[in-house]
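Revision sheet: structure tokens.
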Amino acid sequence: MKKIYTLLVATLLVVNLKSKAQDTLFYEGFQFVMNSYTDTSGTIPTNTVDAMCYNIDIDLLTPHTGAGFRSRQWWQTLAFADADLYTTAGFPDTNIVFTSSSWFDNASTPRADDWFITKNLLLGNHDTLFWKSAPFQTPRYCDGYQVLLSHTSNDISTFTDTLFIAAEMATITGSNDSTFSGYTFTPPNKFIHGFDNTYTEYHAVSDSARLRGVLRPFFVPLDNHGNQNVFIAFRHYSYDDNFISIDDILVRGDRNHQGIHEYSNQLSLSLSPNPSTNQSIVSYTLKSQSFVKLSVFDISGKLVFTQSNDTMTQGQHSTVLNTSEFAKGFYTLTIQSTDGISSVKLIVQ
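Predicted:
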């Protein structure tokens, strides 16, 4: 059987590798596909050092044709939820996501199996993987997916490390509502979109059993894979549901602040709420009287906020960080004192 492969050139963020802040190793926002083609040879171009990203259809099933356009593999489309579509100065700034379908025609075992695989990445000591995802609907027919890692190649058989799993709806056992009590999900005890009553919205053409999924941010530390070459895959693996979307895949880490992670527990630094929309409380503990400097860096390593205090007493402290003026995105917050340097990831929505 022939398999369909689409080759993508990843969109990279330009960063200064000599920056004193976080370095971006990989970014794909799916706004543009600079080069793509379909490979119908039936042989995956396996490579251990591939500089390209691959979009692979493994299931080879025909998408459902009665509900609009659906591709065989991941494809670019608008985000599902109104909350993920923005308008600036009267012009639509559309949020493009990568989407895969699990609704098929004339299939006895209609399970989606679509893969998006990053290029080969050489990780540093303390890199972190960020991304967002949203199902088209939840809890009824909520799609699931996996985030996997390979140390070997971009061959799908080598992705043996599981970084994250989002469960899919398995059966309808009770009432048709949004309480999740009338549904079962698989695999058990895994993350379920909308289960905590966040990152969903009611849609006029839907109902309470089909809440629209709003893009939700996730991150996974990659410290256990430090200084190794890896491939990261997003696998849509869902049985007869609807759509799943992913967006803003980012791998970044600290190449220059060698002491940040080593001293990460020195100040007991915490940030709440995170993600943040208007403000967050920055909490930390000093072991001795010390000066304190708080800094916030954006995704490119640019310093966007700083605050210094001459001398703070020993003990617990907290300060309010106003995030309402920050653009939506990923940041790194650091606190420096004579006890050391601590950092924490910050997401502004």
